[in-house]
Specification:
Number of helices: 8
Largest sheet: 22 strands, antiparallel, barrel
Distance between the termini: 48 Å
CATH architecture of the largest domain: Beta Barrel
CATH topology of the largest domain: Maltoporin, Chain A
Helix content: under 10%
Length: 774
């Protein structure tokens, strides 16, 4: 071989890989790990070379291979992904792979412009969402002991959650507890994309553990244009899911005053093609009051699969076994004498073993298919099975419930000149069968059968919504739904006797429109206004009272809400604010009153005027992980409620103009959150409630109260794989005597459900990382 050919051969050997690299590129897409929506503007940095690229509006990015090599021997490249509002992530990928790289970024929003919401089907930042909407992030749920959602939900203005007994919840959004003597009514609840509220209008929220929930969005006021019947509001609960790229085992234990014990185990794994989370939680409580113990076991399986870049399959299954005792309400004299006692007498709670026993399974599966960048469909199917065994003070109930349903919608996005339009259209259907039997309660034992009923509930809606994003920061929304509800009640004891046994209540289908507009004044502030209407039919428990009487004259509530608000950030993003003023008009208002046998009876009483202001403020002094004091924030929420009966005749007494029962005119929550770089943290919270009218006549009020609580602890890694959260807390540090979950319009003047005095808790959580995707 000639000597000049040898250098040429070496030159070709060197240039050939470079030529191949110049023709190769690493392609990929970046998505939001929570919503699976594309993320534009993500900075993609090649580790080792500093070369940078940016993802486009569809989340797509391309890194030429020649920019990624530091050596001709490289087979892998490390890419670092950053976007404000998301946790930065480094991913290791094959250098010359022909497969598209899928990267998921976890949201960690710190201000309103970064908080993305799904309410009203917008998938937009909160700053671009027209409507009164509050978000409860995981950090808010975890700032308490997670034994209950009550304290986390009560940080939100306009919302009040009560616990009449351990695990006996009631939620009021803008006064909606007026018609809820117990349980969750007139508030629609979703778990993921699946309704948790049943076809009969009730929600068994107490079957969930607070640790099952990753995030909560609360929509206030009528939302029938998207979510069906309801004049109170909507709760969107996001199931806890595994984080992308993490594989970990977490165990925790909490113990506290009055026999509180809580244990939880969570195993999660998250990858590019699938994620799964399995969680088991057990909670027990001896109770502050007599006859107030509870036990609950909850198993959660939550998973998502991404078989292709166009498909996402989400599924969950919850099994819950719940038992809790019912101490009953006290009179003022009993409350003053000894708040720990239970309701006494011949039908007292201890004598009758008043309690709730529920076993239930909820399951659902959601399939999202993205036909193109413009078209997608989201379809869910779901079902539940539940058995209840309840000895109450005045009767004994045994119920079986089974339900199935489906929800589907198509979403189309297109450009209209300089504007972007998103059109959503779909429907939802639920069918539930309740087998309800009531008996005499003979000191906690089954007595003679009183009633034997089958209740078939069917409810559904068709909905459509158009949202247009216009130039100059304008967003316009118009939505409409068509809602229908029907109850078929078969009284089997009458059928056996040959009498007329079938009763049908078919509510007239109602159209519920919503119109909203939002204007971004600048990058930091937006204003919005909306008009929405809704209707809310009675629940089956309103119709079928526990004494066996059919309440057939009830009509559905109908309401219209006007609201306007402003939200945003000031002072270099240190101050965030969200202020909403609203005027709500409700017709055929349903109220609940107890009769002589303590049975809650609902009836329509006229109309109400509900005007109010809801304010949320937060000032962040520092938010810098590199400093010793890494985070310090002071926040507050305040609610002003000027709620009045507009037209209300009670027998011969005119109650028009009276204050709305069960609503505090003024309520406020304030908190201070502190974190340090070594891992120490402190959460302080105070809650204030004004006097609450307990009767429609406004003759009895609960006293105003101010309670305070705190949680302090340390979170830090213990080596490479293990991390620790060691904490202790105090509730009702002011040792305030107050009632949380009053019985409204109660017979025998039994209004008060005493809350625990000063109490303490402490716990530990250990998280073991099984490895991370690099």
């Amino acid at each position: 071989m000639k000597t000049y050919k040898i250098p040429l051969l070496f030159l070709l050997t060197f240039l050939l890989p470079c030529t191949l690299l110049a023709q190769q590129a690493l392609n990929g897409q970046v998505l939001d790990a929570r919503s699976r929506q594309p993320l534009g503007g993500v900075t993609v940095t090649v580790v080792g070379t500093g070369s940078q690229n940016v993802s486009d509006s569809q989340g797509n990015f391309q890194v030429p291979a020649y920019e990624a090599v530091t050596s001709l021997h490289d087979k892998f490249v490390s890419l670092h992904f950053e976007l404000p509002g998301y946790t930065a992530r480094t991913v290791k990928a094959p250098l010359l792979s022909e497969d598209e790289l899928l990267v998921l970024l976890q949201p960690t929003a710190t201000n309103l412009s970064e908080v993305e919401v799904t309410g009203y089907e917008t998938n937009r930042p909160l700053l671009e969402t027209a409507g009164a909407l509050s978000v409860i992030e995981p950090e808010v749920i975890q700032r308490f002991d997670e034994s209950s959602l009550v304290r986390a939900v009560n940080t939100v203005p306009g919302v009040r959650m009560e616990e009449r007994a351990p695990a006996s919840y009631r939620i009021s959004i803008r006064g909606s507890s007026l018609r809820a003597p117990y349980g969750v009514r007139n508030v629609k609840v979703y778990f993921g994309d699946v309704p948790l509220t049943e076809a009969n209008g009730t929600t068994a929220l107490n079957l969930l553990d607070a640790g099952n929930i990753g995030r909560i969005e609360i929509l206030k006021g009528p939302t029938g244009s998207i979510y069906g019947a309801g004049t109170g509001g909507t709760l969107l609960l996001e199931p806890k899911r595994a984080k992308a790229g993490e594989h970990q085992l977490q165990v925790g234990a909490t113990a506290g005053s009055f026999g509180l014990r809580r244990y939880t185990t969570t195993l999660s794994t998250g990858g590019a093609k699938a994620n799964a989370l399995v969680q088991y939680t057990r909670q027990a409580y001896d109770g502050f009051r007599e006859q107030s113990a509870m036990e609950r076991d909850v198993f959660l399986l939550s998973a998502q699969f991404y078989p292709t870049t166009k498909q996402t399959i989400s599924t969950y299954l919850i099994y819950s076994d719940l038992f809790y005792q019912l101490p009953g309400a006290l009179t003022q004299a009993q409350y003053d004498e000894n708040p720990r006692q239970a309701r006494g007498g011949a039908q007292g709670s201890v004598v009758q073993n008043a309690s709730m026993n529920t076993d239930g399974v909820n399951t659902g599966i959601t399939h999202e298919y993205r036909f193109s960048d413009n078209w997608r469909n989201i379809t869910s199917v779901f079902g539940l099975f539940r058995f209840q065994d309840h000895p109450f003070n005045t009767d004994y109930e045994r119920n079986g419930m089974q339900e199935y349903g489906a929800r589907s919608r198509f979403v189309y996005t297109t450009r209209l000149g300089a504007a972007t339009a998103t059109v959503t259209a779909g429907g939802e259907y639920q069918r539930g069968l309740l087998l309800a039997r009531t008996y005499d309660n003979n000191r906690g034992k089954l007595g003679n059968m009183r009633t034997d009923d089958e209740v078939l509930a069917k409810t559904g809606l068709l909905f459509t919504q158009a949202e247009v994003a216009l130039p100059a920061g304008w967003f316009l929304t118009a939505a409409l739904s068509y809602n229908d509800t029907r109850y078929d009640i078969t009284r089997l004891k009458l059928a056996a006797a040959g009498a007329d046994s079938r009763f049908v209540r078919d509510f007239k289908a109602v159209a519920s429109p919503r119109i909203a507009a939002l204007k971004r004044l600048n990058e930091k502030i937006s204003v919005h206004a909306s008009v929405s209407s809704g209707y809310s039919p009675p629940t089956d428990e309103d119709f079928l009272t526990s004494d066996g009487v059919l309440n057939q004259d009830l009509e559905a509530e109908k309401g219209i809400s006007y609201e306007t608000g402003i939200r945003g950030t000031l002072l270099n993003n240190h101050l965030s604010f969200d202020v909403v003023a609203f005027a709500f008009r409700l017709r055929e208002t349903i109220v609940s009153r107890q009769d002589v046998s303590s049975v809650a009876v609902s009836r329509n009483v006229g109309s109400t005027r509900q005007n109010g202001v809801e304010t949320a403020l937060a000032y962040t002094f520092t938010d810098n992980a590199e400093q010793f004091l890494s985070f310090l924030q002071l926040w507050t929420s305040y609610t002003y409620s000027h709620f009045r009966f507009k037209a209300y005749q009670q027998n011969n007494t005119d109650l028009s103009g009276n204050k709305l029962t069960g609503v505090a005119p003024h309520a406020a929550t304030t908190g201070l959150d502190l974190r340090t770089r070594p891992g120490f943290y402190l959460n302080l919270t105070t809650n204030y409630s004004d006097r609450i009218p307990l009767t429609d006549e406004n003759t009895v009020f609960s006293e105003a109260y101010l309670v305070a609580g705190a949680r302090a602890g340390i979170r830090r890694p213990l080596g490479r794989h293990l991390s620790l959260d060691l904490f202790a807390g105090i509730d009702n540090a002011t040792d305030q005597k107050y009632s949380l979950g009053n019985d409204l319009n109660a017979f025998g003047a039994r209004y008060f459900q005493p809350a625990p005095p000063r109490n303490y808790y402490g716990g530990i959580s250990l998280k073991y990382s099984l490895g991370k995707d690099n």
